[in-house]
Amino acid sequence: MQDFLHKEKVKDDMKKFWTYLVIMGVAVVCAFNYEIFVFPNKFAPSGLNGICTMIQYLSGVSIGYLSLLINIPLAFMVYKCISKPLAIRSMVYVVTFSLSLLILDKLDLSALAYSTDTGTSTILGPLVAGIIYGGCYSVLVRASAYSGGTDFVAAMIHKYHPEQNFFVITFLINAAVAISSYFVYGFQMEPVILCILYSFMSSTVSDRMQKSGRSAIRFEIITDYPEEISDAIINRLHHSATLLPGKGMYLGKETNILICIVNRTQVAALSSIIKEYPHTFAAVSQVGEVMGNFKHLTNDGRPAHDFLDPGDGNAC
To answer: Which of 38, 48, 237, 251 could pair covalently with 34 via S-S, beta carbons 3.0-4.6 A apart?
Structure first.
């Protein structure tokens, strides 16, 4: 028993270590994202980093310093009031991101930086930057971490004013950044549009990636073979089903309705089961999120393991 507990502890420790490495890797990718796609195209991204970007543009002070200056007190408040693991993991990201920016500032990345002299393809910079950040942010949330800045502020406001929507607060901060960029970047509308585009792409990609890990597919199967189909679902897909009595109103015939929720990867397998039985059909719909005792399985029916440690689950 002690050997088993020791192995489990070692496994958990390795998972946490891997999670911190992933957080640091994501921070480095985000720093490259700023250097290659954000700074060369002269626009402010969303959040407090957008404010730091505008300050850097006006004063020349690196975001690396500004991000630390802003996020350290915010992280301390989150540490004291909301979650210690969340604050620590988020600061690992912030410190790595800031140090990476300071190092990259000293390197010549002009050969990699994307920008156009004519401005005809400027839109591609924030478009790609938003996609990259959205993917990085979804990984951070799965690792129970924040990217700092706006997330810290919104979390603190939501803590003491839970009636305030987290995403509304974030939207208002991003809107203020977009409006401010009009005055910072020479009274032009293009930086405002680029900021909005970046915010839209990052939030869309992040939302899609986060939902993909929690979504499932619901089958409502109308059949005269409920026992046979249920056995196939249990033995081949390792899920179960709920049987409801039904009645076909056209002929007035008694029938059966099986309700089954499966992983997205198992849709083809369940469809092939349904085709094996005559006069059987199903209504299929997507489930945005499944809560409770639902198994996330691989194609061969084994439990899907999360490679990142979820922490205390306070990141939202």
So the answer is: 38
